Amino acid sequence: MSNPYSPFTAPQTHQPPPPSATGKILLAIFGTLGVCGLLCCGACGGLGIWAMQESQRDVAEQVVAEFGQHPLVVEHLGGIDSCQPNLAAGIADDEYEMVFDVRGPRGSGTIRVVTVLDEIIAAQLKTKAGQWELDAEDMPTTEAPTEAVP
């Protein structure tokens, strides 16, 4: 038997085997696939958010056109000077509605609209003073008077 602590025996060194190139190749392949996957998801997500914002901008213009002179909006806000989509408030609700932050000369509030195929079917104005349903029947009519034909 040999004594491993004897000064006359040569120290035995155990060297690990050289690392295989297969591990590095797999790491490079999966890393590249992961980065490509993240880039694709980010691009699709960004494109989706952009499309949603564009759609809401169109509806915001429709909100200003339809409700800018509504008697309740004029009474509480003085009309609509600015109308911006509020994505966070719209996403937080469980219903299919869009929320717009509106500002007028007399104050600010939100208008919640429910749309079907980009057509507003219901709307609600909410300010610090309260909330009101905005009905199209309440809109003033701007029909030109007809002249009698002699």
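^ that was protein a. below is b, sequence first then the tokens
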Amino acid sequence: MELPAYPPQRRTSRPSLLVAALAALATLAACGRVGFEEPAVEGVKDSDPGEVPTGDDPAAPHAYDRCESARRIGLLEPVLMGTVTSAHDDLPSPPGCGDGPEVVLRFTGPARTVDLEVTSTFQGSYIVGQGCPLSITAEFSCAPLFSTLATPMSDVAIDENTYLIVNYVEGAGRDFALEVSDAAP
């Protein structure tokens, strides 16, 4: 059996400049090296992932696992995707709230009342309270996390000193999503 003959293909050693630029941009965006930020709104701090790597490797991705390197959650950021992959167990958790590698988030913007919902791919907990690290004498709320189930917390008063800590306890996954919405009046 003879294979069909195809016309010769013209090969070039250099792709067009536009194709190369789009491929480079897509690669950088997929690797998280290029961020597409929304324009700043006067009087509201932007969410800033910070420049403080944690852990042993200074080139490692940001773990946000310490109070001083907390990821800030801006007013215009209703959904935040995160991971506990490179996090360490740096903070003590209040009794009964689970303990393990954690990610620390800090709210920004004006004081307000919000509804929170966290969905994770692991079992753990999330804790909301004033200051960081949280003290067992401080007012705080905690809720369990179950793999793929959304865990809501309603009518949470937040301000610039409110922290949300996501704790990993066990499970194959390491990712979570936080949804923040204004509480109904």
